[in-house]
Amino acid sequence: MSAYGHQMEREFSGQNLLIRGGSENESQSTLEMGVYMSSFAATVFIGGLVTVGVSVMTLLIALIVMLQDCQSQNAGVVEMQKWAENSEYCRILAFHVELNNLDSSSLPSPCKEMVLQNIRDGHYLRQLNDSLRMVEIHFSNVTPGDDGQDVVLMDVDDLFPSEFFSIDGLSFPRFKRNTSANGMDARHVKQMSVQTLYVKLRDGGWNLILLSRKHERFRNTMVEYLNSVGCNGWSSLIMRVDDEMPLDSQEYISRKKTAIQKQGFRIVGAISSQMDFVAGPIMRGLNFKLPNIMWISKREHHVFTDEV
What is the pTM of this model? Predict the structure, then answer.
C-alpha cells in the first residue's frame, strides 16, 4: 500500500475512533441522564403510592369502623325491639297469671328473668312509689265519717316479712336483706314503704283492719313484729282459723270482706299488692293494687331471694 494509502487509513481510523468515542461518551451521558431521571420519577412515584396507600388505608379503616358502628346500632335496635316485644308479652302474661292466682312456675324463664331485671333496674320501686303516692293523695282528700264506721282494709302480709314463715308452716326469723341495684332488697323497701303508708293512714284518723292469709297460730309472732316496727293501733287483726285453711285465698278474703260489711263497717279502701285481696267489688270504696314483686311459690322462694 502506498504512503498515501496508509495515511488515509490512519486518518479514517482516527475519525472512527473519535466518532466511536463520541458515541460512547454520548451514550454514557445519555445513560447517566436516564438513570437520574428514572430515580427522580421513582421517588415521586413511590411517594405518590405511599400517599395513596395511606389514604386508602384511612378510608378502609373509616369504612370498617362505620360498618361496625352500623352493625352495632342495628344489633342494638333489634335487641331493643326484641326486649320491648318480650317485655310486653311478659307483662300481659304475668298479669293473667296473677289475675287467676296461678303459680309463678307458669311463667317462662325469660319472663322470670325480666321480672328480676325490672327490680335490678329500679323499675319496680318507681312503680311502687307512684302507687303509694296515689293512695296517699286519695286519702288526704277525704275524711272518715264521724260514726267511726269507715275503715281501710290493709293486707297485713304486705307489712310482715314473709321470710318469717317456713315451708312447713313454722315461724322463724330468717329475713334476708340482699342488695339490689338500688342498694337495698326490693322486698325490704316495699315492706318499709307500706309500713310508712300504714302510719300515715293511722295518724290521719282512719280505722285500719288488717287481714292476713296466715293461720291464727301466728298471731303472737305477727303482733309482736308489728308493734316493734310501729304498726300498732289497728281496729282488728283478722287471721284464718282451722276450717278456713282449705279455702282458696280469694274466697277466704271475699268472705271476710262480706262479714266486715255485715257488721256495719264501710270499707272505703282495700290496699294490697296481691290480686286476690283487691278482686271483687267493695260496696262504696276503692281498691288500690300495689305492684307485686313476684308471686313465687315456696319452692321458688330461695331462687328469688338469692338472685335479687
Answer: 0.65
